Amino acid sequence: xxxxxxxxxxxxxxxxxxxxxxxxxxxxxxxxxxxxxxxxxxxxxxxxxxxxxxxxxxxxxxxxxxxxxxxxxxxxxxxxxxxxxxxxxxxxxxxxxxxxxxxxxxxxxxxxxxxxxxxxxxxxxxxxxxxxxxxxxxxxxxxxxxxxxxxxxxxxxxxxxxxxxxxxxxxxxxxxxxxxxxxxxxxxxxxxxxxxxxxxxxxxxxxxxxxxxxxxxxxxxxxxxxxx
Length: 228
Ligand SMILES: Cc1cc2nc3c(=O)[nH]c(=O)nc-3n(C[C@H](O)[C@H](O)[C@H](O)COP(=O)(O)O)c2cc1C
Prior knowledge:
Blueprint (H helix, E strand, L loop, with lengths): L2 H7 L13 H11 L11 E7 H14 L21 H13 L8 H12 L6 E8 H4 E2 L2 E2 L1 H20 L3 E5 L6 H8 L5 E10 L17 H4 L6
Antiparallel strand pairs: 1-2, 2-6, 3-4, 5-6
Helix pairs in contact: 1-7, 2-7, 3-8
């Protein structure tokens, strides 16, 4: 598949079919994604992939703990505390796009149900957890941001490769809201930070939620060109 086509087709999938993804295909995707660049080729990414009973156990434990507990549980990668402009306006226009065709905003119950959908990986049969060595990411002088930057490149590769293989993905901060649960189920050692979950599977194209593409701001808001 052409890279431009993969970039244009990729979007966050929030409804998956239950059909499993073959282990060999997941291995191929991760191996190819490793071609991402990184600081001095340090390759700071590691992945733990869960499916079947292991993923179900994680999902059930997340749902049982519920969304409220998140307020008292510090995520290993902190959520933003503040949303200054222009970022808050971008969230609002995303919400306006989601609410298009509705007569009311999302209710509290709908918000709660959405969080449970998150915890169940929107029905995806597998989740790729991104792990990063704490000793490289969290250094004495502060966070080594470059390591997370490199991981982002690898994650984007995974998401584009998934499109190439007819799969869909969604990067999910909510999938790692309770890292202790994932750590226990998968036996991930304390020295690895559980940074992100990437739900992966075959999109349920009949579900209207998979149809929309989220908008982007105009080019002149985010790029300046000099010396042309
Ligand atoms: C690091 C990261 C974490 C995200 N976490 C969540 C999440 O927990 N739940 C969710 O529904 N979407 C999550 N998203 C998806 C974003 O909302 C989505 O990428 C954005 O709205 C743009 O839409 P698009 O991916 O369809 O282009 C996350 C995306 C990123 C990059």
